[in-house]
Amino acid sequence: MKKMLVAVAGTCAFTGVARAQSSVTLYGLIDAGVNYTTSVQTSRATNGSPRGGSQFAMLDGGLGGLSGSRWGLKGVEDLGGGWKALFQLESGLNFNNGTLGQGGAMFGRQAFVGLSGSPGTLTFGRQYDSVRDFVQSYTATAQLGGVIGARPDDLDNLANSRRVNNAIKYTSPKFNGLTFGGLYSMGGIAGAPGRNQLWSLGLNYENGAFAFGGAYLNARNPNFSYFGTNPNASASVTSNNMGSAGSPASPQYNPVYAGFASAHTMEIFGAATTYNIGNFTLGVNYTYTRFDNLGDTETSGPNPYHYSGEAIFSSPEVNIQYQVNPALRLGASYNYTHLSRANYDNGATYNQYSAGASYALSKATVIYGVAVYQSASGTDSLNQPAVASLDGLTPSATSHQASFRLGLRHYF
Questions:
Q1: H/E segment holding residue 127
Q2: Within the chain, how many helices (H) and strands (E) appear?
Q3: Range of the domain at 275
Q4: Cα-Cα-Cα-Cα dihedral sign, residues 256, 95, 71, 100
Q5: What does the pLDDT look like over 183-199, one tens digit per residue?
Q6: N or C: which end of the chain has fewer CB within 10 A?
Q7: Residue 312 within any structural domain of the chain
Q8: Inter-residue contact 230 to 108 (CB < 8 Å)
Q9: SS3 letters across 194-255
């Protein structure tokens, strides 16, 4: 249950100014669980092949469950005339050890301030992009697939792995079921106004049992503007913020796309729809993720595999949910992802299946189970035989990986 921390109404000792109908709210959730995962990488052998084994682990929901644990503050002040000032500060955390998420950022999930009125809402700060805002809710990762049910290594950000810094964002009011919006992030590089910039646009439409969402994102120098926005990221063009090829002492990280850090531009297009039939919800969605102009080692990132041209991920998904009764919900999904690269005949293919069930003990507490299986084939971005890589988890040492989770999620 959400708790009202402050009701600011003429008693503010710091300013002495009366502020009627203003409030600040504390909120959050903790997603705790245990995962059993097959074939988890531990390191890379001297011949380049990964090594690993099965794993039992207590993991936060952001690494292997439905959603990342968090706490936050949000507030609103009535300015009169239909206008409101608002803010939100949200911190990610790992419940099992108490550390901060998002690379150690204090408010790494969200941090913004803005104004809201009849023309819409305008906010400034660290925020979600339009792909997340307008497409995510229709996909398996926002339902019972959770983080590990996202596309391989969350290549399209529908599991919300990344946020956008220095962003100006607009969201419209709802017009007969239609909502739209956009975001622009300034690069902030002196003498190079286009470098590291990012922008996105999206819309959502709901009409009875039918709903649709679509969005587009364009990130210049994505190794920094999109993947390098956490405090632990590097600003050097010799560093790879997108992933790692691993070492004799460490596993790989994001092998699905880690080899494409030299892309000058990244584009994501997503479209999704759902339709309700009684207690069933049927969903279909598609994302197209493209890394353009590979080989930009001057302003983007390293290119150890000497790639050029473009790399394209095409990824359709189907999902279904069934509300058995007010407390029990079931879901399943299938996703197919294919990587193709200019000048290379052998890309990579990923097939992924997920199933889940949740039972509400109350309005604030849910127990759930999720099972996900992924198989990979072909050659991935690290120019190796493709390994399976479930989002949030350490990649597999082989072409297959499965994870099973039993979890408890509590809102407050």
A1: strand 120-127
A2: 3, 18
A3: 31-61+131-166+187-411
A4: negative
A5: 999 988 888 889 999 99
A6: N
A7: yes
A8: yes
A9: CCCCEEEEEEEEEECCEEEEEEEEEEECHHHHCCCCCCCCCCCCCCCCCCECCECCECCECC
Torsion of CA 193, 190, 110, 153, to 10 degrees: 70
Query: Of all helices (H) and strands (E), which one includes residue 79?
Result: strand 70-80
Q: What does the alpha-carbon distance between residue 243 and residue 254 come to, in Å, rounded to a whole number?
A: 5
Q: Tell me, what CATH number does 57's domain have?
A: 2.40.160
**Above 70 in pLDDT, residue 20?**
no
190 compared with 117, residue with greater pLDDT: 117
Number of domains in the chain: 1
Q: Can you give the pLDDT at residue 203?
A: 98
* pLDDT digit string, tens, across residues 118-173: 999 999 999 999 999 999 999 999 999 999 999 999 999 999 999 999 999 999 99
Read off the pTM: 0.91
* Residue 199 confidence (pLDDT): 98
In a domain, 81, yes or no: no
Using CA atoms, how far apart are residues 4 and 23, in angstroms rounded to an integer?
Answer: 8
d(CA 147, CA 152): 10
User: Does some domain include residue 124?
Assistant: no
CB-count exposure of residue 274 (10 Å: 0-12, 13-18, 19+): buried
Confidence check: pLDDT of 98 > 70: yes
Neighbour tally for 351: CB within 10 Å: 16
Please report the pLDDT score of residue 198 as a whole number. 98
Residue 17 lies in a domain: no
> In the block, which residue shows the tokens 């030299």?
262
Top mean pLDDT of 4-13, 237-246, 340-349 is at: 237-246
Structure tokens at 323: 């509300």
For 102, phi then psi, to 5°, come to: 50, 50
